[in-house]
Amino acid sequence: MRLYCFPHAGAGTSAFARWPEQFGPKVEAVPVLLPGRDARRRETRVTGRRALFADLLRHHKPVPSIPYVLYGHSLGGMIAYSVARALEQAGRPAPALVVVGACPPPDARVRLVQAADLPDCQLMETLREAGAVPPDTPRGGVWQRSALKVIRDDLRLAQSLREAADGPLSVPLLAVSGDLDPLAGREVMAGWRDWTTGPFVERTLPGDHFFLRGPALPRLLDRACRVVQRRTGTAESAGAARTHPTVWTAPQLEDSPVKDNK
């Protein structure tokens, strides 16, 4: 079972570096590396939906045709939704499950997304309020100089994807919140109910906006992937869990992996 992971604004694939050891042997975590960070740091960052899809198609090879799951955290949640929606609209096989974490639904008002063009000092303050700045980070320091431009462009991408959101998915959707998240708590994440016509499930985990750094989220995703495997009858094992920078394609969708509580 492939689990494709889209990171939050400003992040590369390191957010998922420790996940393999927390998954079972049949789940393979596949982090998505966007341009402008990590090994692709010299490449132009994408700030729009069309550019995002063009980058995914241009830089990454397809995967075997087996059921798969998309997980996106914060900005990554909008990417996961947008990718699944585009696949459905194109008549391509959709993911067996889409999981969005710490990501307000497309129709929610998100102060952080609207902060992309603020002066540095105001953007930094907004990021601090969201818990997105490492503790004891000095103003004007290395972190600010290296991360702020990436975060600005990622916030622009998030805004573009929100504006382009044009309807619900038809696949099962799992919305995950952190119990201490000031941006996308349980009530906010419940709004994703309107963004799928398929089964919808909510889960709340310990932590703030970056609860993906704790052990609870990978355990939840491991269980969700195993449910998908049981429901789809997937016989092929992904082998020992591992991560590597590649991207989604469109394996076969078979069945609904979560109980409908709409």
From TrEMBL:
Residues 234-262 are annotated as: Disordered. Gene3D superfamilies: alpha/beta hydrolase. Signal peptide: none annotated. Residues 2-217 form the Thioesterase domain. Belongs to the thioesterase family. This is Thioesterase domain-containing protein.
